[in-house]
Design goal:
This protein is α/β, with parallel strands linked by helices. The chain contains eleven helices and twelve strands.
């Protein structure tokens, strides 16, 4: 969708907006299912990047200690526990700038992915920047989806990160898509951005070719020691508006209610799901931030008459949209 279209939708009267998004949601997701994803930090802290929201950056005194890549045996225990607890997608994140073929750490990740993929869950990884060779190797190893958020608008991005560019983000997404992986890409609300920045971010996401398979909508969890530690919370109605407009502009995506759920009431989460969210991170921790307990989430789904979506590890990536001009406007290298 164009920025003008997104702007018009976002500024509709609240009930008109969520009524429209609900119709689109039911047309594409009629089964009343919610995808349950577990996120595990397999390599925490010590990152060389300067993302101003992230406690894992080595540049900030956040109290997060740099750790080595977890042993595969420990990761497998966590993955099996996630599966047994009802998760249908297992996401593994590593605090790196990126990965490269031939390095010991990348070969270890490939080995881990191969074993996790045998558990019957969808496998998602977020490892920073990828080249085409790395993307192809991850796809072959069994990765279902690659997570790489664009965070905010291109204009606001330089105020949040300086150690890589917005175009670097788009290039990694392009490589993941060219390798045949689904892309999980969204943003973070509460970075000091304007509504216009949020809609420009969504304009880019909705223009991907193919569109993202899943779109996480995060609310900033201000982390001590980071430059954004003093930022305030995101208004619930602003969050729901973004979810509704995301559903309207990327109708086939799983829209994930992501970081910040600990600050939302059960009623607010229900409203977000009514407006179009159909995926959550499930478990007590998101990388370095807290998350609602699994038992609380199960009670919420039961009370709303929703059920966990079945895993689809052999899921095909969304198809490109032919001649429509909707891919990131950068060259593939």
């Amino acid at each position: 969708m164009t920025y003008a279209e997104l702007h018009r939708l976002y500024h509709l009267p609240f009930f008109d907006l969520i009524q429209q998004s609900r119709v689109v949601h039911q047309a594409h997701w009629p089964e009343r299912e919610v995808q349950l994803c577990t996120l595990l930090s397999i390599k925490t802290g010590g990152c060389s990047e300067d993302c101003s929201y992230c406690a894992q950056s080595a540049r900030y005194s956040s109290g997060v200690k740099a750790e080595k890549l977890m042993e595969k045996e420990d990761i497998m225990v966590r993955a099996q526990a996630a599966r047994d607890n009802g998760s249908t997608r297992f996401c593994m994140g590593a605090a790196w700038r990126g990965v490269r073929m031939g390095t010991d750490r990348f070969e270890k990740v490939i080995d881990i992915v191969k074993d996790v993929s045998k558990l019957g869950m969808e496998v998602c990884v977020t490892l920073g920047e990828l080249g085409p060779q790395e993307a192809a190797a991850l796809k072959e190893a069994g990765v279902t989806a690659y997570n790489h958020n664009i965070d905010t608008s291109p204009e606001h991005y330089t105020r949040i990160v300086t150690t890589h560019t917005f175009e670097d983000r788009l290039r990694t997404i392009r490589h993941a898509q060219d390798a045949g992986m689904s892309v999980c890409s969204g943003g973070i609300l509460g970075l000091g951005e304007t509504v216009e920045d949020r809609l420009k971010m969504l304009e880019i996401l909705s223009g991907f070719n193919p569109q993202p398979e899943s779109v996480p909508i995060n609310s900033l969890m201000p982390m001590p020691g980071t430059p954004l530690s003093g930022n305030g919370g995101v208004d619930v109605f602003d969050l729901v508006r973004m979810i509704a407009v995301t559903r309207l502009s990327i109708p086939k995506a799983k829209v994930r209610l992501s970081a910040g759920r600990t600050r939302l009431s059960r009623e607010a989460q229900a409203l977000a799901m009514f407006a179009g969210a159909n995926s959550i991170f499930y478990g007590d921790k998101l990388l370095t931030a807290a998350n609602p307990a699994a038992a609380e989430d199960q009670r919420l789904l039961q009370d709303l008459g929703l059920m966990a979506q079945e895993p689809n590890p052999s899921m095909m990536a969304p198809l490109a949209c032919g001649e429509r001009a909707c891919s990131p406007a950068i060259a593939t290298t």
